[in-house]
Design a protein that fits this description.
mainly alpha, Four Helix Bundle (Hemerythrin (Met), subunit A), 2 domains, 12 helices, elongated, disordered N terminus, disordered C terminus
C-alpha cells in the first residue's frame, strides 16, 4: 500500500498527536493542485483585470492633454499613483490578516497576509521605479533622500525582509507568528509614508485635491486606480490559492513521512528491535522520534496498537 494511502487511512495515524497546522487545515480541506484549482469566477476576474487596466491606460494616455509644465511626462501618474494607492491597500490587508492570525491562530490568515505582502511589495517597487523615471527630468536626479522617497524605500525593505523571513523559517507556526509581527510593523510605516510630505520639508508634491486638478486628469486617474484595484484583488487571490496548494503538498508529505516511520516501527516491533524513545525534531509533533542510527523509535500509539491496526501499515 502506498504511504499516502496509509497516511490517509491508517487508524494508527488517527491516534497520533498531530501538528496544529495539520489539525486546523488538513489536506482534504484544500483543493488539489490541478488546472481547475482556481474557481472559474477568479479566472474571469483575471480577464476583467487585464481588460480594465489596458482600457484605462490607453484611454487615459490618449484622451488627456499634455500638462502645461511637464507635458506628456505627467501621464506617468496614471500608473505611479494607482500603484502606490493599491500598495497601501495591500499592506492594510497584511495588517488585518496578521492581527487575525495572532488572535485566532488560523493558517489561512497567515497565507492571506503573505499573498498580500507579495503583491504589495511588487507595487511598491513599481512606484519607486516610476518615481525615479519621473524625477530625473523633473528634479534633475534619479534619486534623492527625500522624506517621501526614503520612507517608501524603507517600506519596501521591510516587506522584502518579511518575504525573506518566510523563506528562511521552516517551522510553519514560528514562520506565521514572526511574519505577523513583521507585517504589523511594516504596515505601521504606511501612514508615515502618506503623511511624510506634510510632516517634513520635501520636494515631493503634497496630495492633490480634485478641485485643483483638471477634471480630465481626475477621471482617468480614478479609472486607473479602480483598474489597479481589480488587478490587486486578482493577484492576491491567485497567490493565496497557490499558497494553499503549497501547504497541502507540505501536509501530504508530512503525513507520508509519518506513514513511512510507522512502517519501520512495525518492522522493528515484529523483529523485537525496539529502542528507547529519544525526542528529536523529526516529527516530534506526531510522537515519532528517530535514533542517531536512523531507525525510528516506537510512538505511544503504536505500543498500544493491536494486531488488526498493525495490518494497516504493512
Amino acid at each position: 500500500m502506498k504511504t499516502e494511502e496509509i497516511a490517509n487511512r491508517s487508524p494508527l495515524i488517527a491516534k497520533l498527536p498531530m501538528s496544529p497546522a495539520v489539525m486546523t487545515d488538513s489536506p482534504s480541506s484544500i483543493p488539489p493542485a490541478t488546472g481547475a484549482a482556481l474557481p472559474r469566477a477568479s479566472e474571469w476576474l483575471g480577464v476583467v483585470a487585464l481588460v480594465s487596466i489596458l482600457g484605462a491606460q490607453l484611454l487615459g494616455i490618449s484622451t488627456s492633454p499634455p500638462d502645461r509644465d511637464m507635458g506628456d511626462l505627467q501621464k506617468i501618474m496614471y500608473v505611479h499613483v494607482p500603484a502606490a494607492w493599491n500598495a497601501f491597500l495591500a499592506f492594510f490587508v497584511v495588517a488585518a490578516a496578521s492581527l487575525l492570525y495572532l488572535w485566532k491562530g488560523q493558517e489561512h490568515h497567515d497565507l492571506l497576509a503573505a499573498a498580500a505582502a507579495e503583491v504589495g511589495a511588487v507595487l511598491t517597487a513599481l512606484t519607486l521605479v516610476l518615481g525615479s523615471i519621473w524625477g530625473r527630468p523633473t528634479w534633475g536626479v534619479w534619486w534623492t533622500w527625500d522624506p517621501r522617497l526614503t520612507s517608501t524605500a524603507v517600506l519596501l525593505v521591510i516587506f522584502a525582509g518579511y518575504l525573506a523571513l518566510r523563506s528562511f523559517v521552516d517551522d510553519p507556526d514560528r514562520r506565521a507568528q514572526w511574519s505577523a509581527v513583521v507585517g504589523l510593523l511594516g504596515a505601521l510605516n504606511v501612514p508615515i509614508v502618506y503623511m511624510s510630505v506634510r510632516w517634513w520639508r520635501t520636494i515631493h508634491q503634497i496630495q492633490s485635491d480634485p478641485s485643483t486638478v483638471d477634471p480630465r486628469y481626475v477621471i482617468w486617474l480614478r479609472a486607473n486606480a479602480i483598474a489597479f484595484l481589480v488587478v490587486l484583488v486578482y493577484f492576491i487571490l491567485k497567490r493565496y490559492r497557490a499558497a494553499q496548494m503549497e501547504r497541502a503538498a507540505e501536509h501530504l508529505a508530512e503525513r507520508a513521512a509519518l506513514a513511512r516511520c510507522l512502517r519501520l516501527c512495525v518492522r522493528d516491533r515484529r523483529c523485537g528491535r525496539l529502542e528507547p524513545r529519544k525526542p528529536t525534531p523529526l516529527l516530534r509533533n506526531h510522537g515519532v522520534t528517530e535514533q542517531p542510527s536512523g531507525r525510528p523509535t516506537i510512538p505511544i500509539a503504536l505500543e498500544e496498537a493491536d494486531e488488526a491496526e498493525l495490518e494497516w501499515v504493512q
